[in-house]
Amino acid sequence: MTSISFCVLGSGSGGNCTVLKIDEELFLIDAGLSIKQTRLRMESVGLSIHDVRGLFVTHMDRDHFGTSWPGHVQRMGLKVHVGPSHMETACRFGVPVSCLEVAGETETSSVGVSVRRIDVAHDDTGCSAFIFEHDGCRLGWATDLGHVPGHLLEAFVDLDALAFESNYDRDMQEASGRPAFLKERIMGGRGHLSNRESLDAVRRIHADSNLQHIVLLHLSRQCNCPDRVRSLWNMHGGDMAKRITITNQHEPTPMLHVQTIRNSLFTR
Ligand SMILES: [Zn+2]
Questions:
Q1: Ligand 1: distance of its center to the CA of 26 in Å?
Q2: Ligand 1 centroid to 3 CA: how many Å?
Q3: How far is the CA of 60 from the centre of ligand 1 (A)?
Q4: 3-class secondary structure, 64
């Protein structure tokens, strides 16, 4: 039985947005694509933007919450769930206070979705990782994290699916013509995760989980390459390599379905 489905509509520094379907309810994780692109890409997988009932925003960088969204949120009366450290920025961007909720601390749905927020380091105001749980099915979500803290690994257990940042290839980052301060910002523990750091963390998470899908997010256009990611996983990912989906900026992934194993065993 499918409990949670999701489709990454686009991921990268040009905009991040995922549609999450839990039971029959739709949510967005991040809203960094334009309204038009979000609508078109949702339609391409048979979904309507008008059926979205709420947003979970990992942090307020523009590639995660675009300028056109405050108006849409207000018109549609949507709830925007963010971490406490992002409330002020959300208000400044024009999200009405009445639309804001602290992620993980309020009821979000009528079908019994539980959401847990885990705060991680990223730039000045940090970033929120999430665990979405419904009917015994658990999806972990973590992007834009400078390093993988112990408390995230402690929380990311018994997951059935995982979406995790895999931002850059270290060799490409070091060889890039980027200025030293930018490289330091990205690789210094409060920026982004390298492919290798991501793989090592996913391996640890997988040891205490049974991941049906491993979705790799936010690949850098300049300092990463899907072929490199694929070959790294083929070489060092063992059995996990078969389960990866590499996201990209311009095209949605297929709709990925997470099965509730416990239930499917009973109904076989
Ligand atoms: Zn980002």
A1: 22
A2: 28
A3: 9
A4: coil
Q: Give the type of residue at 266.
A: F
Ligand 1 geometric centre to CA of 263 (Å): 36
Helix axes 226-236, 195-207, angle to 10 degrees: 40
Distance from the alpha carbon of residue 255 to the mean position of ligand 1, in angstroms: 22
Mean pLDDT of the chain: 92
| CATH of region 2-267 | 3.60.15.10
Helix, strand, coil percentages, rounded to 5, for the chain: 35, 30, 40
Q: Residue 265 has what pLDDT?
A: 46
What is residue 100's predicted lDDT score, i.e. its pLDDT? 96
So where are the chain's domains? 2-267
Tens digits of residue pLDDT in 151-170? 999 999 999 999 999 999 98
What separation in Å is there between the alpha carbon of 144 and the centre of ligand 1? 6
Q: What percent of the chain has pLDDT over 70?
A: 96
**262 alpha carbon – ligand 1 mean position (Å):** 35
Cα of 256 from ligand 1 centre, angstroms: 22
9 vs 108, which has greater pLDDT?
A: 9
Can you read off the two tokens belonging to residue 134? 């419904």
pTM check: above 0.85: yes
Q: CA-to-CA distance for 243 and 18, rounded, in angstroms?
A: 18
